[in-house]
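// run 5 | inverse folding | seed 20
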């Protein structure tokens, strides 16, 4: 009877071992399914995040390009407006420059020396002399006039009161 109980015991042990093995295989299969499902979720989420980032980077690049284009347009508009302002100022200032020259010439005609004119006006003597050369008539020694008509008009009324 010993050998039959050994056979029966061995068969029972084998059955138990196979049940444990089957159970372990089922647990392992479930574990592998969970790992696979988790990895699928991971890769799907990663792909979505990568697409979101790529779309955001593309949009940011477009926004930056648009900003550069707008900046270039505004810069060009500002340059043009600035040039127009300077051009208008030069036109407006040219009349005043002529009056400055006339005033300096008149002070010289009144007998004021260049040094005194420089001191009174805050201009350097070199500037006063340069203005004199531009505005004095050619009849005076060492000078030449660029606007001889203006010089003769002022001479006609040396004691006139400015308006």
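// decoded
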């Amino acid at each position: 009877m010993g050998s039959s109980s050994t056979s029966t015991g061995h068969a029972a042990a084998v059955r138990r071992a196979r049940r444990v093995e089957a159970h372990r295989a089922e647990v392992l299969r479930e574990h592998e399914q969970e790992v696979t499902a988790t990895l699928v979720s991971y890769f799907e989420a990663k792909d979505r995040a990568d697409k979101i980032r790529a779309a955001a980077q593309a949009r940011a690049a477009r926004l930056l390009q648009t900003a550069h284009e707008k900046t270039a347009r505004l810069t060009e508009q500002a340059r043009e407006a600035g040039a127009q302002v300077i051009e208008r100022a030069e036109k407006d200032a040219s009349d005043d420059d002529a009056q400055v020259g006339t005033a300096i010439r008149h002070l010289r005609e009144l007998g004021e020396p260049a040094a005194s004119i420089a001191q009174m006006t805050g201009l350097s003597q070199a500037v006063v002399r340069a203005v004199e050369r531009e505005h004095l008539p050619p009849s005076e020694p060492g000078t030449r006039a660029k606007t001889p008509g203006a010089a003769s008009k002022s001479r006609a009324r040396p004691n006139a009161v400015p308006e």
